[in-house]
Amino acid sequence: MLAPQRTGPRFVEIDAIFETCVAQARKRLDADTVDAWLDLAFWLGRLGRGAEPQRQWLLQGAELLERLGPALLAPLRDALAVLQKTPDGRAIGDLLTVLPALRLSTVADAAGWLAQVLELQRRSSVAIHHRAIDPSAALPVFLAESPTLLARVPVEGLGRWLEAGLRLHGHHPDRLAEFLRRQSPDSRALFSRERPGLALVDGERRLALTLRALWALDEPILPLPEPAEGEAVTALPYLEADGLRLPERLEARAGVSALQRYRLMAAHLAGHRRWSQPLVADNWSPMQRLAVETVEDARIDVLLLRRFPGLGAAMCALHPPPPADPDDSTDSQRRVSTLRLRLARLSHALLTGEPGDDAERDVLDRFTTALATGESSSRDMATLALAWVARSRRQSDQFAQVIFEGTQVDWRDDNRHLWRFIEAGDEEDTLGDPPPRPAEAEPEELPPRLYPEWDAAALAYRPDWVKVYDRLQPAGRASDIDALLARHHDTERDLKRLLDALKPQDRVRLRHQEEGSELDLDRAIAALGDLRAGILPDTRVQMSHRTDGRDIAVLLLMDLSASVNDPVNDPAPAGEGAAEPGETVLSLSRAAVALLAGAIATLGDRLAIVGFHSDTRQRIDLLHVKGFGEAWDDAPKARLAAVQGAFSTRMGAALRHAGELLSGRRADRRLLLLLTDGRPSDVDVADPEHLVADAAQAVHELDAQGLYTHCISLDAQADTYVGRVFGARCSVIDRVAQLPRRLPEIFLGLTR
Q1: 3-class SS at 425?
Q2: Which of 74, 300, 549, 552 has a C-alpha 20 to 30 A away from that of 448?
Q3: pLDDT per residue as tens digits for the range 406-426
Q4: What distance in Å separates the CA atoms of residue 220 and residue 248, rounded to the nearest whole number?
């Protein structure tokens, strides 16, 4: 027998367990692996970290080596040696405690996770001159969360998620800890991307089209809420008042693709929406409600198969025959509730028409009869279910230990929509009517739209990263805009002269037509002369018209960051006009936009004007000044007069949202004009190139949607970055005072 002294210094805790651990290890491992296991234990005892690291290795190391093999020892010892030389050496005991709980299947996975631990320690510990002096506050959090994290994502996905967290929050210990606990929206969104299978967001469009085409349902498809700690990863779908809730991600199962599983879930929910009626639940026990839900779900699925027989193969694959009822085998099993198992067998019998006992056969006969004459009702199914409960009830149904294995039907929901509960104060004569909905206060603003943001360093999007709020710009005085236009009377006069030459003719006359809306008199007289002369006349004596107008939709996006409030410092050369004293970038922008709006109104094009500014990624405001369907009159003029500059310029988010607004317009050409006085920036972004790269990516996205983007920059330094964002589609106006004249000219040049 090996002496415990071989394992290093004598610890009372080690003496108590040593012989037992060695005996168990010899049963699990060969002699060479036992020696290697003891060598590592001996090394751990000499680290000076107390008895805990050694104790954990003796208790769990043999089982870990049995599962992964002795090849684990090399990367494990190397990782522990690195940790020992850092201020985080105290975490060695925690690491050895957590490692067996990870249930890793290969040494490569274990080595990958150990490498992630070391990388996190290196980049999150407090260091001076590249030497760590204080332990990492994030490392204990990562070790504690790793079992939960690796139960949901593979090791490679965990590494990518961890890298994103370190890149975003590596210098903010509290934010990094929040990220590792998945308490922040960006953490949850990035983590969801790493889970295997098909993401709901990737299949949402196809599901929505299916629901619209087959069920005439135009309801939002939303992911299930993030499960709380300790809840199952895969929750059941459900119906709510405003949409369908489906799992955020699904994998293929039983030969059925993830997309087909989504389609089956959506079809089942749509069937409930069409055919189910709510029932009052207060007088029924949980057992009875469970039986009612099972039979009602079976009715919905049978009705689905009537309409879409192609779903049958997927249903049969995902709902195999449940295990046999073990109630009669042993006394211990008689004390286990088999209610869910029997209901699963009943569900299979109703779906396939193959009953297993007399109670199931009776319910199946009545079920088939009820559906033979039509769709039946939820109340009819409740009657069948209660009869089955009364006939098949067992004493063991009350026991706390329940058989769940093989009882959950993959595509079915939790049936919360099926039940209504009588609240205090409800009257009996109102039970058949839906409860009145309380009056809701008008929201102060619309809920935000979430958009991704491009991370050029990672070559990936940060999903749901920014929040964009739509607001109607408050109104000022329209007379202020009229006064601005009066100051630029010469520019307006020259612009009108140009527009008169460019204005399209709405109606073009088409002569010499066989059919038309009116008579062509010249051709008719000629035909009459030919007829009197005995010549066969030309019958093309009609005249028609066609429209020859432009079909252009323009969205003007105004940068309303705080810098537009700055005064214009623009000394004019001799013979040229200069900005007036006290003139600001904003006042000249108002004048230019007003001139442009008047020009576009003259041409008959459709125009929307939207301003934007940002206050971190949590708040990007888009201020609507003029809508596409709104005339250029006092109302939009009053809003334009009241715009003010504030905060920062998160350009990429504004471009993406403006693109969404413009993409909904039907036009031959859709033009997005951006008027800005500076480069993309925001107070929560330290790297000046980050938002430039994001804006460039947003422009690429708009190009892919068929939207033409052009930037008018008032920044004298724009040449350093504007080309990277917009390429050649930009106009830099070095002298801001020229903006009122140049902006309409640029537009006409783009749309001529």
Answers
A1: coil
A2: 552
A3: 788 889 999 999 998 765 444
A4: 14
Closest among 622, 615, 474 to 559, alpha carbons compared: 622
How confident is the model over 279-301, as a mean pLDDT? 89
Question: Nearest 5°: CA angle at 422, between 421 and 423?
Answer: 110
> Can you tell me the distance from the alpha carbon of 57 to that of 53, in angstroms, rounded to the nearest whole number?
6
Residues in the chain, how many? 752
Domains assigned to the chain: 4-194 (no CATH), 198-228+237-422 (no CATH), 478-502+551-751 (3.40.50.410), 507-547 (no CATH)
Query: Mean pLDDT in the chain?
Result: 83
User: Measured between alpha carbons, how far is 54 from 309 in angstroms, rounded to an integer?
Assistant: 62
Cα–Cα nearest to 121, from 175, 69, 176: 176
Question: Per-residue b/e over 650-674, b at no fewer than 16 CB within 10 Å?
Answer: bbbbbbbbbbebbeeeeeeebbbbb
**Nearest partner of 636 among 556, 748, 552, judged by Cα:** 556
Q: CA-to-CA distance for 357 and 212, rounded, in angstroms? A: 41
Alpha helices in 195-237 (DSSP H): 200-215
Element (H, E) at 112: helix 107-124
Distance, CA of 159 to CA of 301 (rounded, Å): 42
**Backbone phi, psi, residue 455, to 5°:** -105, 100
Token pair listed for 531: 């007829």
Half-sphere exposure of 2 (CA within 13 A, CB side): 24
What the block records as the tokens of 74 is: 């090399």
Instruction: Give the amino acid at 287.
Output: M
Q: What are phi and psi of 461, to 5 degrees?
A: -85, 145
Could you say which DSSP state residue 694 is in?
A: H
Which DSSP state fits 438?
A: P
- Cα separation, 300 vs 280, in Å, equals 19
Query: CA 739 to CA 733: how far, in whole Å?
Result: 7
